[in-house]
Amino acid sequence: MQSFAQNIEEGIRKQFARRLFTPFAKAIVQYKLVEPNDRIAVCISGGKDSMLMAKLFQELKRHNKFPFELVFLVMDPGYAPENRALLEHNAALLGIPVTVFGSDIFESVVGVEKSPCYLCARMRRGHLYAKAKELGCNKIALGHHYDDVIETILMAMLYGGQIQTMLPKLQSTNFEGMQLIRPLYYVRERDIIAWREEYGLQFLRCACKFTAEVAHGETDGKRQKVKEIIRTLAREDPQIEQNIFKSVENVTLATVMAYKDKNGVRHRFDEED
Question: Measuring CA to CA, which residue among 76, 19, 82 is closest to residue 52?
């Protein structure tokens, strides 16, 4: 008789192969996210996205064509005991051998009124980089998916007055030799939800003390508004989501008012050569 984890793995190979594993593998190949002799810290927050990412990485490892290593890394930023217990229960249930380390991030952002979620995210990433490097890793993998990407693009325009996206990989500026990768780049959130519902899984949403009373664990009102905008537009035109995603791949500098180069130097359309 198969274990629950084995049933999940069979589902990834069969029922959910086209919707989950195929786009996962596509991003890895297209953007060269996994390379020979990598040691990757697969960062698990306890939510549906990062838990699925861990299972997809395990499947990739079974069929790898070159050597690489995985460390399933969990940072406890100060979870309530019940949230920590749920995360560890799910990891055991899914057959994910996690390495857990603690931090005091939640306590550090107590009293921060302006953008506490942004500060928390920045601090989390720094702790993950540091621990991953300590464990001999050269990459950290985060569970951002396709829908996160298009929401970020629209949020940058509507609330930030700029055009930017969430990249599939980037070099760390503070941790030499470290790289961040996003292997769920092509995976749709609706397919992750379908996978979760198929197996009756219950994952952490936002376990932060400051958002415990917010419905459904929503940590960002602006992002929720953008989700609704995209959902409404996509009902009228299914191509909308792909167009948003592709828009940052089709920027013509000659048609924009101004842009910054990789060194941060600003250039205007009317400047002299």
Answer: 19
